[in-house]
Design brief:
Two copies of one chain form a homodimer. Chain A folds into two domains: about 140 residues, no CATH class; about 325 residues, Neurolysin, domain 3 (Orthogonal Bundle). By secondary structure, chain A is mainly alpha-helical. A three-stranded mixed sheet of chain A has the order 1-3-2, sandwiched between helices. The interface between A and B is large, with 40 and 40 residues.
């Protein structure tokens, strides 16, 4: 006899199918869609979003959820599905279908408008639609409700339990040491030259080499693939089908570390138990934990001296200009720290300063202290303050990222949380595995991936981040591991 | 105030969004999906198909349709939407859910059994399930109802208004002349050598050249794209986003004419008025008319001496081995006629004989004159009779095509209708445009495409084929144009 849980799962499978379809429509939009497809795509996505919303918040699903909640034994996967669905139901039932459809349509249009605005360095044509997106976000926050700060309502959607005060505390803790570290680095006499990393690197070689990298570190290409997109991302619709994107530029590390970054997201997704496929337990638990995995593979593994030394001979065989490069030179060049304009191309040290700027800009607009049309000047002044540089154009300033254009506002601090967590997890991994540099130097990534699967990936979205992080590391998320190792690494690279 | 028609359109937009999503899932499955994605893809597609069916046959849609029918002015686009939806509703509501589920299950099992049977050349393990599929098809035909022949109910689903008698008449008319033409060709002393078309043609060159071809003939790459798939097809989800696929093999014409074929389908789809996007009026009207366009561009344009002569210099610049090929040699080689076993690889002359065999086999089984288990012998005797060759195995005989195994029985004659119509349309086009060979020889395809847009494409699915064909050609579909021009062309190629 079908149980209440079966009934709930069956409803959730319908919602999952609609979400999967939307994810694929979005993947296609960013990878292969011809421009003529944009207007119908916006309509299709909006209608599917409305249907997914309606199916999820429907009376049948709500009734099934109530019944299943009585039936599920505490501690079981079923109880986790119920908990997860209850949280999601709370978030979703606060938004009327009309608002969901309006936002979806506006986001699709916003994306197209942003592409044009960035290409033309023309913020003001994008400003009205961005202002609308901020207004719709405020509507959402007000519907969700919050106690202390409007940001609390937003960031909780992406990182369960996170608050404006917590973000503020993190930035307050890291701001001083990082600004100081950047300053010390700037004054060091040992400035690496990375000009040799710029060149005409054939796209097909970049494709082949990054696919080789994926295989080496353990991203399963039978259960995923890599394509290219202007703004790399990772998505998926099944534990067996995870899609990465990267991009090929004249600055070679863009593809190398972009691939490692998205592969970190992808391996996390691939690490969920297949039995959870299409349920709410499959996939990562939060953006912060997700980002910890992309940053771990990109920075802690990928930008280590051991990894660079291991990778270099093969890299040289794909790109003969690098065949004679000394590993130490390569290591220092790929860890060059220099204040720059584009977050996704920022080095590991300055990265969080970019996040901090965006957090402060978002808060200023949400608090009503800043009009969207005045954003560029405000944005630029923050860059001057924290990074000591001023964007020359809005395209390399506040137009740089895709997220706002798609209505994603209020989650940037999860990037910084990811950076913190990557080192917090890594310190535990190192304690268990011992000499990780030796493993990496031999290209033995399996023990590292296996540790992450056992400790983190196989739990999917079962435990909320505030449970998962102490379960793995014995303590709540903090900045100490991150600050210590960052300082240690970069003071060594720069001999300071 | 929203009208009943608005209400109907709104319901149909929902169904359209679900169908668009399914089309994209299917496109991805055949182009890019990693193998690990298969099981979730099957579930997602099946759930979306159920949702689309439920949304279409829902009480709300049926009520909106009834109201809209009262409101729509005869002759308007709205009336055509109503008519189209009424027909579709009739087809969709005749089958009880139990039968739909039973067929879906049987088709999935059938497909699996067919894959194994074909791989093992073992028809008899597939026969019982194929017999069941024929039985379920008979059930469907009985539910749909028919006056004269069970086939009437089936083919009407694919080609509105087509009947068994009509198919029979067509095949009776073309059987003799084509069998005679094949015989005469076989006895001709002038047998073209096409061995030079086999070679190692680099995939990237095949991609670049076929994309160049697409641009020349007028397929709009801003509103579509071309990828590769094992079995080429054309699909789409918007007038602004039509997807073609082709394949790159060691037999170069496979890509060239495959691309032209799918582009014919694609340009027909792109030619619908943008104002009809996402409505039932956008896109082609029937399988037969659709096939007329793919065959027109593939065979009448693409395999003409003028086209080959025009294309050859550019082809030679992409494939140096062909740089010195004589146009006449190329023309004859790409029009080589030779009886063979596999329909999808057949030349233009023998192609309809393959279709005829399948039609006769289907009818014999549906009429109860042939038991499924005895099909191979019957099939082989027909190949002997019409093509003068006997399949050596059932895998290259009655097991060759996927369609039956998935329960698609009763639409093969639309391929032949497409061939007939392609020449019937072309004769009218030629009457209006004059010397089409001169246009083609100069690479001026725009007048040809424009004529097709004005006469056929811009009407989308507004007029049923029995109205459209006389509207364009002044007479109902017939075989005369086809037979005359086929004979003329191939007697000239073979000097007979």
């Amino acid at each position: 006899m079908p149980t209440a849980l079966d009934a709930l799962k069956s409803r959730l499978f319908d919602v999952n199918a609609l979400n999967a379809a939307m994810a694929m429509l979005d993947w296609d939009q960013q990878t292969y869609m011809p421009k003529g497809g944009a207007s119908a795509r916006a309509e299709h996505s909006s209608l599917l979003a409305r249907m997914a919303h309606e199916a999820f918040v429907s009376e049948e699903t709500q009734r099934a959820l109530e019944e299943a909640a009585k039936e599920a034994e505490p501690g079981t996967d079923e109880a986790a599905i119920v908990r997860n669905t209850q949280r999601n139901m709370k978030l979703r039932t606060k938004f009327p279908a009309e608002l969901v459809a309006r936002k979806s349509k506006l986001s699709a249009e916003g994306h197209e408008a942003w592409v044009t605005a960035r290409a033309n360095n023309d913020f003001q044509t994008f400003a009205p639609i961005l202002a609308e997106l901020f207004e719709i976000t405020k509507e959402e926050a007000n519907l969700l409700g919050y106690e202390n700060h409007i940001y609390d309502a937003l960031i909780d959607m992406y990182e369960e339990g996170a608050t404006h005060a917590q973000c503020q505390a993190i930035f307050d803790e890291i701001r001083g040491p990082i600004v100081q570290l950047v300053k010390d680095i700037k004054e060091s006499p040992n400035q690496p030259d990375d000009s040799f990393l710029y060149g005409e690197w054939p796209n097909d070689k970049q494709r082949e080499f990054t696919e080789w990298l994926l295989k080496q570190i353990g991203f399963d290409l039978d259960r995923g693939r890599q394509d290219t997109a202007p703004h790399p991302f990772c998505t998926g619709w099944s534990v067996g089908d995870i899609r990465l994107t990267t991009r090929f530029k004249d600055y070679l590390p863009s593809a190398l570390f972009g691939t490692l970054h998205e592969a970190g997201h992808g391996m996390y997704e691939q690490g969920s138990p297949m039995a959870w496929d299409r349920t709410p337990l499959a996939g990562g638990v939060s953006l912060g934990v997700h980002e910890s995995q992309s940053r771990l593979w990109e920075n802690i593994v990928g930008r280590s001296e051991a990894f660079i030394t291991w990778m270099l001979p093969t890299l040289g065989s794909y790109f003969p200009a690098l065949a004679d490069t000394d590993p130490k030179t390569m290591y220092c060049a790929t860890n060059k720290v220099e204040p720059s304009f584009i977050r996704v191309e920022a080095d590991e040290v300055t990265y969080n300063l970019h996040v901090m700027v965006r957090f402060e800009v978002e808060c200023a607009v949400l608090e009503g202290k800043l009009a969207v049309k005045d954003m560029p000047a405000y944005w630029n002044s923050k860059y001057e303050e924290y990074l000591g540089i001023t964007p020359r154009t809005d395209s390399e300033g506040c137009l740089q990222d895709v997220h706002w254009s798609m209505g994603s506002i209020g989650y940037f601090p999860t990037y910084t949380m990811g950076n913190l967590l990557s080192y917090q997890f890594w310190n535990c991994l190192e304690k268990d595995l011992g000499d990780t540099d030796a493993l990496i130097a031999r290209g033995e990534f399996r023990p590292i991936l296996e540790w992450l699967i056992q400790k983190i990936y196989r739990h999917g979205a079962k435990y909320p981040p505030q449970e998962l992080v102490p379960m793995v590391t014995g303590k709540p998320m903090g900045a100490a591991d991150y600050l210590a190792r960052l300082s240690q690494k970069y003071r060594s690279v720069y001999g300071i």
